[in-house]
Amino acid sequence: MSEGIVIRHYRPEDLPQLRLITVESFGGVALEQMLEERFGLLNGRSWRERKAEHIDEDCRQNSGGVFVAEKGGEILGYITTRLDPANGRGRIPNMAVIEKARGLGLGRRLIQHALDYFRQSGMKIAQIETMASNDVGQYLYPSCGFQEIARQVHYAMEL
Ligand SMILES: CC(C)(COP(=O)(O)OP(=O)(O)OC[C@H]1O[C@@H](n2cnc3c(N)ncnc32)[C@H](O)[C@@H]1OP(=O)(O)O)[C@@H](O)C(=O)NCCC(=O)NCCS
Question: What Rg value do the Cα atoms of the chain yield, rounded?
Answer without folding.
Answer: 16
